[in-house]
Every structure is written in C-alpha cells, then in structure tokens.
Design a protein that fits this description.
16 helices, disordered N terminus, three-stranded antiparallel beta sheet, 2 domains, mainly alpha
C-alpha cells in the first residue's frame, strides 16, 4: 500500500467539497484511505460489518450512511456485489504515475480488481492523470508506457456508467418530521441523521458530476411555520437503534469471533489463553464496556506471542550453575571411560609378574 500521503492529505484540506462532508463521512474516508490492504489503484475491501471494530459504537447502518454520502460526492465508489470500494483520487493525488515502477504497480492492481465498474473507474482516473500530466515518465517509459496505453483503451466510466449502490439506512429510517406529525418525504438520498439534502438528489448522476467539476453545498431545510391553532406534533419516538448503548459487564456467553482468530493467528498469539485472561481480568475488576469484541481486539493488539508449550521456564542459569554443569559432564565422561577400560585392567592384573631386565649388563655384553 502507498505510504506517502502528505500531498494527498494536503489536497483534501484544500477541497471545499471535502470540508462540506459530515464528520462521519470524513472519518470513514480516512479509514478507507489508510487501510493497510489498499492497493496501488485505491481498491479496498468493502465489508461494513468488519469495519465496526475500527471505532466504538459504529454500526453497519452508520457506516453505510457515511458511505452513501461519500458515494454521492464521488469521493469513494462502491460495488457491494464484489465487496470492493475505490478511493478514486488516490492515483492522481498521490502522483503514483510519476514513477514507471509505480505505474506498473497501478496496472497490476487494476488487474486484481474484480468489479467491472470499479475497473472502469480506475481507467478513468488513469486517463485524467494522463490529461493533466502527460509529462509523467510512466506514460513514455519502456517499463510501463505500453501497459498504461493498453489500459487506457479499456472502457471507462463514461462508457460503463455508474449508479449509486449504497442505501442510507439511517436517513430513510428516521425520516423528516419537522412541525408536522405526519412524516414528510425525505428527498435526501445521500443520507445523514438530520435529513439535510447534500449535493444532487439524483442517484443516477453522472460520474463526472463530481466534486472536481461542481461545488456542492449544504441546502438548509427550513421548517414550515406552525399554525398557532394547531397543536404541537409529538416528537418522533426514539428507536432502539437511536438510543445510546450503555456500558455493560462482559456477557457469560461472550467468545472470540472469527476476526479475533484471524488476528491471533497472524500475531502468533494463543487465542484461548488470551480470551481466558481477558475474561478473568474483566470479571476481577468489574469492567464495563460498550463493545466487548472491540475491547478484546485492542487486548490482542497488546498480547505477546507465546511458545507452543506452556511449561513455565525455570529461573535463568548463573555462571556458577553453568560451571557446575560442565564439571558434572566431565566427571560423567571420565567414569564412562574408566568403566570401559576396567575389564582390560583386570586382565593385566591377572597375568604373572615378569622378571625385571637389568639394563646395566648391556654394556658388558656388548
């Protein structure tokens, strides 16, 4: 994944359309744009249920509401069928096509995209980068020039077309009940909790009807003047989805999820041991949490890998212990050699003594 985001981030804070996004939409954009699995063409996995662990209190409904706003403003494109999303400005804002080697990486990342719609979006972004910066060496280099030229002949979004795919569950669920007991039709198709229309309500808007071409602004929704003789309408009932979740003790049936198992396997951590430690620590300290799965995800991030066997190691050996062990090994080796030579010594002891030779007589004999 590309790591140099300084230029990318600077361009975001200079973009009025990005500043007009709601905080949830901006937060989701940062989550997607910094995903460690992002490819060099800006493709990331789109699985709202897995993104819940990225922030406390996040729900799939809130995530999809923020995604609908990003999609309407064309900061991110989605294909729920292939579970993919595309941070479309990455190729141009991060200037990946300056370098031929990075250009090849973009081409390879394009080939790994499953969605035909998002593949067409990548082609559009490469074409725009070429139109804005034809001097980039990737377009003329023998390493990447031919590959990029062939990629730009593929269908782009003007040929393929794009229709919004994300449904705003929160905006549609709450509706708009200002000054009237009867719900008013909600024309906001982007989605936000207060029902303010943002940008263009036409969900079949062209891909090029984007933040780069047309500045989108908030249009405040004015309330209808209340009739003095008309009784005030009761406020809408608060649903369980809107209620704030309260911290609670760890449930008796709590158990690690598949996401936890994947993370523990990747880190080399004993999942069952860490789950027992986590549960005992929560019970012993009377901890309360809003999301226990998210809390355990953080716990695993601080866990240390454990050896395959759980035998408790003894205290470290001192210099005296090592010297004593060496001497014992030497004595054992000497005893083994003595035991091996003992039969030979018995044979030598059993032979009769031989007369001694007097070497003093040799000179006389000679």
């Amino acid at each position: 994944m590309p790591r140099e985001y300084a230029r990318f981030q600077l361009s975001m804070w200079e973009d009025d359309d990005f500043l007009n996004l709601t905080p949830p939409a901006q937060h989701l954009y940062f989550v997607l744009a910094t995903d460690p699995e992002m490819s060099y063409c800006g493709r990331v996995d789109w699985r709202p249920t897995r993104l819940r662990v990225r922030a406390a209190g996040w729900t799939p409904e809130r995530i999809e509401s923020a995604a609908a706003e990003l999609e309407e403003a064309r900061f991110v494109l989605f294909d729920p069928d292939t579970e993919e999303a595309l941070v479309r400005a990455l190729i141009r804002s991060d200037e990946l096509l300056r370098n031929p080697k990075m250009g090849i990486s973009v081409v390879r990342a394009y080939g790994a995209v499953a969605s035909r719609t998002l593949r067409a979006a990548v082609v559009t972004e490469v074409k725009r980068a070429h139109a804005e910066h034809p001097e980039y060496s990737s377009f003329s280099s023998p390493i990447s020039g031919e590959h990029l030229a062939r990629l730009m002949t593929r269908p782009d979004l003007e040929e393929h077309g794009y229709t919004n795919r994300i449904t705003n569950h929160i905006g549609n669920h709450i509706g708009n009940r200002i000054g009237n007991a009867e719900p008013v039709e909600n024309t906001n198709r982007i989605g936000n909790a207060i029902g303010n229309p943002i940008g263009n309500a036409d969900r079949s808007v062209s891909y090029l009807h984007t933040a780069d071409r047309i500045q989108q602004t908030y249009i405040p929704h004015t309330a209808r003047a209340a009739d003095p003789g008309e009784p005030d309408a009761p406020p809408p009932a608060q649903t369980s989805r809107q209620r704030r979740r309260e911290p609670a003790p760890i449930p008796e049936e709590w158990a690690p999820t598949d996401t936890h198992r994947h993370k523990a396997g990747r880190m080399g951590v004993d999942l069952e041991h860490e789950a027992d430690q986590f549960r005992n620590h929560a019970l012993a300290n009377g901890r309360l949490q809003v999301d226990w799965n998210a809390a355990f995800h953080t716990w695993l991030g601080k866990a240390r890998p454990r050896p395959a066997t759980h035998a408790t190691p003894g205290p470290p050996a001192t210099a005296g212990d090592r010297k004593r062990a060496d001497l014992n090994a030497t004595f054992d080796e000497l005893n083994r050699q003595v035991a091996h030579q003992r039969p030979l010594m018995q044979v030598i002891d059993a032979e009769p003594a031989q007369p001694a030779i007097d070497f003093t007589d040799w000179s006389a004999t000679a």
